[in-house]
Records
---
Amino acid sequence: MNNIQVHPDVPKLVANFKVEDTSLGFGKYYSPIMITAKYSKGQWGKFSLEPYAPIPLDPCAKVLHYAQEIFEGMKTFKKKNGDLVMFRPEMNARRFNMSARRMAMPEVPEQLYLDACEAICAYSKSIVPGKNGESLYLRPFMIATEAGLGIKPATEFMFIIIASPSGGYFSGESVKVYVERKDIRCAPGGMGYAKTGGNYAASLNSYKKTLDIGCDQTMWLDALEHKYIEEMSGMNFFAIINGALHTPTLTDTILDGITRKSIIDLARLEGLEVFERKLAVDEVLDLVTKGQCTEAFMCGTAAVIAPVKSFLDKGKIFELPIIADGGISMKLRQKLIDIQCGNHPAPEGWLYPVKNHQ
Ligand code: COI
């Protein structure tokens, strides 16, 4: 953390920060401090922890016109003894740099990325919530700040981390899924696997349709055949079929979710079978009708696990059975949250302790 410069107002700003609201929700409140660093002439400048403030941007900044931008979503938890732990942050650091390569942006050295995350958490310690599933949600991102309307990779960038004391992404209700048969989110060879704003922007028109017809989330199918399940805009997908977990195999059109990976590891540790395979939407819907697909869920850093209530496809509703104790999905959800909050032993290397700042 010593390589992060700290503005003298940081401790005072955090000490004065209060959230009166009893329901934190997701991404509604922000720590009053943020990390910033500038990249130019082929290198990163100083990483500093500063007061949260608007960013000065030239109206010609390439991010505003050509969307050269990437981000991450990560969580830091407060254990019962007050210690903070980040959940698998090295995986986010690696994915961030993978997204950077796809978007012709500079990589952030992994240790510097981790130190910057640790610094904003350490200095935000007093405002990290500690109830079941609550966390400090970190949003590291990078934007192309170079001014100019020519379409070419920028040479100047800004790296920022903001942090949000957050509760659940969903209110706890299970989710109604709309199967998108026409639009696509991305195509092979595109940037679907990168965590870049454009992929989320591409989902919004269909998301509007999803909401208009009374559903909550859009399910994306593959671009070539419009047949195989890919992901849900901001989350990965799992179906539970005859007691086993089935999830689409990762391709360059699917985000490699860290929660997805953790669920696969956890399910296998629990003795459940997990299949990563091509998953046709018609097959899943048919198995729902036959009562063999008993549960389905979406997962991501923000949402953890959100169970699916029903699918709407071509005007027909496919309801999943209501399971009184929430079934396998809710057991996995609680196990993951217990691990993240330090209430259950974590597999080796999953929790990254946040040292106190000096
Ligand atoms: C996350 O889960 O962290 C994401 O980036 C997805 C977004 C829906 C919040």
---
Amino acid sequence: MPGPDATEACAEALADARHVAVLTGAGVSAESGVPTFRDALEGLWAKHDPMQLATPEAFVRDPQTAWDWYRWRRSLVAEVAPNPGHDALVALTAHVDKLTLVTQNVDGLHQRAGSRDVIEFHGNLFSDKCAHCDTREPAHTGDAGDPLPTCGQCGRVMTPGVVLFGEMIPPAAMQASEIAATTCDLFLVVGTSAQVYPAAGLAGTARACGAGIIEINPEATPLSAGADHVLRGPSGEVLPALLAALAA
Ligand code: OAD
């Protein structure tokens, strides 16, 4: 865990900020029991090849296998709860003038914790979309092996409402995130390996526009060297400690 001086310095930066933007990644949900993507031993991608499962081509080539994997993720996320890191980000809104929360996570845990107006950069696991006619529907229920969900409009097999590799970021989410990155004066990067673009580029945009950068992550990332403050530790502990320092 970071020392009290580092936490105090970040709390002061938060207190001085007029607009705080936060970008979260899979690490924020790790303490809820959702495996991250790239952590070597537990990461989802260590057990599965993403190119086989999280691409539009996978849903054409072998939709049953791709759907079974997403249905497994849905059932896993449905059984877990937000953790103190999610809760601290909800509470943080009361302590700063303006907070914009951008998440790469598709698990909906920020919203379940109580965060409002969350920008879902990579979509949401609990919706379905049709790649053919662009229809969106609430997620069809189904377990591994069940028949595949089909579009109410055109009858073709749907995909989960997440951004698959090679797909565009939803334009509204992209635009809102870029506005946040260019207008904030403090940018928090929490629990992301910062390897997937364009999300990983938002911190650079914020820095180029003059914002301070705080990274919260137990491990170093490509963003660490350019950060003004780095709090090394799990977000479920670091964020509540930061909130406590801010509220003191
Ligand atoms: P990654 O799995 O790439 O990175 C997870 C990060 O969380 C790593 O930097 C870990 O060090 C950190 N971490 C682990 N435990 C933590 C904890 N308790 N508290 C804080 N941080 C912790 O996940 P993302 O960066 O979110 O995209 O991955 C980005 C995108 O890659 C995902 O949105 C997903 C994936 O492909 C799509 O599906 C489109």
